[in-house]
Amino acid sequence: MINSRGFKLRKFLAAMAGLCLAAGFLFMAVPRGAGAVAEPAALTVTGDGVEKEVTFTMADLQALPQKTYTYSGYNHWPALKVFQDMTGPSLQSILDVAGLKDNATLLRLKPTGGRFVHADFTREQLLEEPRYYFPEGENPGDLADWPPIRGEKGKIPVETIIALNDSQGRICFGQRAPNEPTGGDCVMIQEMCNGGVIEVLTAPPAQWEAPTADIPSGTVAPGTKVTLRKPDEAADNVMVYYTLDGSEPDYGSYIFNISYPSFRPELNKPVPINGNLIIKAKTIGFGKLDSDTATFQYNIATGTATPALARDFADIAGHWAGDDIKALAEKGIIDGVTATEFKPEEKITRAQFAKLLTAALKIKAGQNTGISFADVPAGAWYHDYVAAAVKAGLIMGYSDDIFAPDDNITREQMAVIISRALKMKSTADLSHSVTEQIIDKFKDKGDISPWAGNEIYLAVSCGIVSGVSEDTFAPQVTATRAETAAMILRLMRWSEKQ
User: Fold this and answer.
1) Residue 277: which of 229, 355, 329, 210 has the closest Cα?
2) Which CATH number fits domain 206-307: 3.30.70, 2.60.40, 1.20.144, 3.30.1490?
3) Contact 39, 57 (CB under 8 A)
4) Where are the domains of the chain?
5) Pairwise CA distance, residues 480 & 254, whole Å
6) pTM greater than the 0.70 cutoff
7) What is the pLDDT of residues 383-425, one digit of tens each?
8) How, if at all, do strands 41-46 and 196-201 pair?
9) Structure letter (DSSP) for residue 215
């Protein structure tokens, strides 16, 4: 016979034990922290370009390996903005958690709040293209003029990260070239970690349309000014890059529309046509592939008076090297930093000097000319110029595998290279021209490196290289664009007499 009272008691106790056990499991499932409220979602990665959708809390993002970099870039005022010591996980590490697919092509960043609904980037632009922080010539703040005087010396490779210590999660990435406008809030998106979304897509990215010119190719009158135009559908932060020397435009080329139309449109200067000229232009912007290159060719009408100068450089009027610069520009050997500015006091790099020297002496590299310098890749704009100069025995590297193309060239180095060019072009023995006494007038002759002495004696004796004053040679000072133009022109004229 069953004791119903005892059975009911045991049943009641068992039920209570089960409830307590269930409550314990529920308690253990609640995240630790203030009360029982779960930590909110900070960032979600989704789309057909990842294996799975993943939602990250701020703690999840902080648990990923943290990277710290400094970034800089221009906005479209333009002003240089510097983002110091940005810290957070790399974008690659975030996408790896979601399983980034090999066929992913586009990243759509959707911040929460702020002025922007979303910003698109191709996979290459944020994850694969080499990007850098360029400290040389860094001068934060508004620019009085464009382009800035910057260099690539000391550039530091940087990854794309989401900085957790700035603006509730700012996407940060480097520049491809020192003049690339990456510093605006329209591209370095904020508030990505306040419920933002990264949508990864696999659709083939579209391509920007090529820019147009307000004056079609053809014969024009001297002084005609050409305005380049980006595609109508392109946002104001999509740039038109262009060249005037026949090379393909790319990052680092002139930028036509650096300032928004409502900001400082006077910086978007038309290109003056004062001689036969070829303009090559390309549309480059985030979220799409670069456009095809548009080419505009202009010829001056026959019988019209044309200025001797192929460019109107407003900043060389009254300059001591003005006539030399004009003469080289007329020959197509040298160009300005823009269509109207030469920047005579700007420094010149070893790669830039190689280009000027080989152009002046009409030296070209043979097909498939190989060089051993690891820092002169085959696709670099300066590769063929460096290869030609090295093959001719005019320029050497710092070592077998280091050329340092972005280093500024010193007056001493330039004089040595010019001396080698003199020997190459001369049909006579120049040893009689070398006299050490020629530099006795320079009070800083002791600063000349022993390895450079004889070469400098020759370059000075032949009248190609002079001092910065009557009694100062300044061998270790970096050469300016004006000094380079003067020396190159003297070398050309000397060579023509041989």
Assistant:
1) 329
2) 2.60.40
3) yes
4) 42-201, 206-307
5) 20
6) no
7) 888 999 999 999 999 998 899 988 899 999 999 999 999 988 8
8) parallel
9) S
